[in-house]
Amino acid sequence: MEADMTLERENQLxxxxxxxxxxxxxxxxxxxxxxxxxxPDNQAAMExxxxxxxxxxxxxxxxxxxx
Length: 67
Hints:
By secondary structure, this protein is mainly α. The protein has three helices and no strands. Helix 1 packs antiparallel against helix 2. The relative contact order is 0.12.
C-alpha cells in the first residue's frame, strides 16, 4: 500500500515537472518573440522565474527524507 502511494506521488511529481518544463518552453519562445519585436514581456519573464523556483523546490531533496 505504501509503495503504491509512493509510486503515485512520484508519477504526480513527474507530471508536474513535465508541465512546468512545457510552460517554460512556451514562455521562453514568447519572451524571444517579444524581444525581437522590441517589446520586452516582463510578465512572461516573471512567470518564468517563478516556475524555475518552483521546479527547484520540487526537485530539491527533502531534509525529512535524508533524516
